[in-house]
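Z., the sequence and structure:
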Amino acid sequence: MSEREDYSTLLNKWNTSAVTFCVRTESIKGYVVLYANNSGNRRAFVPMLGVRPEYQRQNLGRYLLNVCEEFSRWKSMEAISLEVHKTNINAIGFYRHLGFSEETELENSYIYGKKL
């Protein structure tokens, strides 16, 4: 989470403007938050994706992003973006493997995107 928003503001924003998908059995294994409501530029945005460490490398992240892509297409989005911290080398490799490419470099992170 960035320093720009506190948790209560962030959670309220997600609750009112975003959709959340999760994979669970007895407990949540992974989740993703998605905004697919920008009719101006038709770009969806993933502000948060997480898979518990013990469930990583089991295609849950891929599955969650695929769900986001399908939902975004259904909402008539033409592209999807996400932000990744520069030091998160594993995530950068994962996103590249799924067809995302760097669009913008920020101070501590990159914006990666993909056409749908």
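The CA atoms of residues 41 and 77 lie 8 Å apart. The longest strand covers residues 43-51.

Let me know what you think.
H.
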